Amino acid sequence: MAAAEIKPTVKGLNRTEALASIMQDPVWDVVVVGGGATGAGVALDAASRGLKTLLLEAQDFSAGTSSRSTKLIHGGVRYLKNPRDWGLVHDALVERKRLIDNCPQLVHAEPFVLPCFKKWEREIYMAGLGFYGAMAGKDQIGRTRMLKPEEAEKVLPGVKTEGLLGGVEFFDAQFDDARLNIALIRTAATHGAVCLNYMPVVGLERIGGLIQSVTVEDKHTGESHRIRTKMVFNCAGVWADQIRRLADPQAAQLLRFSRGTHVVVDRSFLPGDAGMLIPKTRDGRVLFAIPWHNAVLLGTTDVEVREAEFDPQPSEDEIAFILETASGYLAKPLYRSDVLAAFAGLRPLLRVPAGQSSTAQASRSHSVISEFGNMITIAGGKWTSYRRMAEDAMLEATLRHLIEPRLCITKDLPILVDETFNPEVIEEAACQGPENDAKVIEYALYARDFEGACTAEDILWRRLRVGVLNAARAQELLPKVAAALEGREYVAPAASVTNEAEVPTEPSSKNVEPEVSAESLETPTAAEEVVESAEADAEVLAEPPSKSETPESSVKALETPTAAEEVVESAEADA
Question: How far apart are CA 81 and CA 300, in angstroms?
Fold first, then answer.
C-alpha cells in the first residue's frame, strides 16, 4: 500500500501546505524560533489559545538536544542537595505526572534501584529518596522502599552481587524524546500552528525598537522568505544567543554548553524492567543504566564545550568512562566491542556565578527574558519542564501586551500520538536484520508524507530510533531509505567494506570529532536531553563496589568516594 493511501490518525505535517501559508504573507501573532521541546511546547500553547502561530526549525524537529537526552522525565534527585532548588524539583515532579497523564503512549513510570555496597548506605539513601518521592505529594507515581540483598537481585537482575547489601527502589518516568517532540509538533498543527523544519532564521528586521519581520532561508531550495510577525519567541536552545545577536550583534552571552554522551549496549547486561542508578561518578554526576527499546542506555557525562555544534560527537574518553563506571556495578563487565551505538547532545545552561567552574553543578532552571521590544527568549531548562516553560513564556508575553490575554489549557491537554504505525516494533525488527527492510521503507514513505521527515537521517534517528540503538544497521539502511524517499530503486554497491571499530554515532556533515578540553580530560565526564536534555540528574553518594570483577581492559581504576565527610554531607543533603 502506498504511503499516500494510508490515512493518519492525527493531522499530518505537510511541508508544501506549510510553505504555501508563509507565501501568502500574513502577519503572524507568534513566530517561534526552534523546533525542539521548548519551541514545540510554546507553539502548542500559543496555537491552543487561538493565536496565529508559525514555528521555524533550522534542522529537523528535535535534531538537537531534544532527541539526545537520557530519556527521563524526572525531578532531579541531585538538586535536593541545595534547598534553593527544592522548588525546581517539586515543579518538575508535578510536570512529570502531567506528562504521564497527557501522553501515556510515550511516557510511563519506571522503577529504579540504587544498589548499596556499604553499611548504612541503604538508610542514608532511603532518607533522601524517600524525601524526593514525598515532594511529589499527590502526584507520586510509585512507592520508595528499601530492598534486602535478595530483593535487589530480583528487582535488578544483572547487578553485581558480590558485596551487595541491598538497595533502594524509587520511581521516575521514562519516555521517547524524539517521538514526544514530533507528537507535540503534530498536536500544535492540529490546533492550527504551521510548523516548518529545515527553515533557519537568518535575519531579524527591527524598526522603531520592535522586530517587524524575520528572514528565513529554505535549506532545500535556497529561497529566502520575509515573514511578518507581532512577536518572536526565541526557543533555539543552545543556539539562542545566535538568534539574539541577529537582533543585536553586541548582545551578551546568556548560555554555556555542556556535552552529555550516552552509550547503548545489549539488553542482556540489564535484562529486567528496572533501571539502575549509580550514585556518584568522578565528574560529580550520576550514571544511569536504563532498559530502553530492547537495549540498555548508559549515561551520561558532563564535558564543558565552547561552541554549540549542530552534530556533537562523543569522545572515546567519554565512552571509556561510561563503560568503566558501569562495569563496576554490573555482573557482566563491559568492553568497547559491546557498544552498539553512542550519541552526544549539548545542554543549554544559564551562565553560572563566578567561582562555579563545573557544568555538573549548574542548575537546570529556566529563565524567561523579554528583550528587543517584542522578543521573548526562553533559556535553560530541561525536557521535564517544557510545558511549564511555555506557560511562563506566554504569561510574560501577556504581561508585556504582546499577545491577547487568554487562558492556558495545556495542563490537561492530551498530546496526540499517531498510531497508524508502531515505530517501536518496526525499529526492533529493523535492528534484527535486512529481512525487515521493506517494513522500514513503508514507514519511511509515511513519515515523509505525514511526519515532516525530509531525509533518511530524519527517519532512522528520530521517527525510528535505529541510529540510536544500532549504528551498524542504521548505516546499512541509510542508502536504501534515501533511495526510497527520492523515488528511485536502491542498487547495492559492488563491494562494501565495514569498519567495525568505527565509533557508532549519527552521521555528521563535518565528520570532525569535537575537541575535549584539558579540564575535561582531568575530570573524565560523559555528556538529557536535552535534554534535557539531556540528562541524568540525581546525585546521592555511594562507594562503588569491589573492582575484582572489572575487566583488565578497563581504562582506569574507579575512584571511590569513601571519606567520612562525604557521607555526612550526603546525609545532610538528602535528609
Answer: 19
